[in-house]
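Sharing a chain and its predicted structure for anyone who wants a worked example. Both blocks are below, sequence first, tokens second.
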Amino acid sequence: MTTLSAHGISANLPSGFEGRIFQRSAVGGEVARPVAHFATFPLPADVADFGAGAVNLMAPQDIFSVLFEYGPESLGTALFARNGMPRQLTGQDFSTITLRRGIPSQSGTQWFFTESGRPFTLYVVLGNHAQRASLVPRVNALLGNVDVAQVGSAVP
């Protein structure tokens, strides 16, 4: 089992998954935040935060997942009121209209939450909506192996 750890996020990747945890360089006045990508297919070097450049490469049996951190100004807002990352998704959590970029047969889900005092969104894409019964348990295996450490307001 491969273990990744950076920026207070760690993941023990289940068999068949690869991933990376990184922080982009800040552009202009923005503050760069941690992003984690996990996939069951080879991730290209240049993938946008929410999967542009990767989801178009997915086969029907593939999974792509993003854990994206927002700034401390998001804490306490209604959007991030859910406490804790979802760990047990169901097939009903996935929809073909949730995707940021609609690709026929794919489906996705997105959750906003606060974990360890840090605001995140979890975005998951399935390669084929019709195969969600077999894909969602693999997503849950991944989610059960992701941890977020509390790092306070000093997250870079």
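Comments welcome. The first strand starts at residue 2 and ends at 6.
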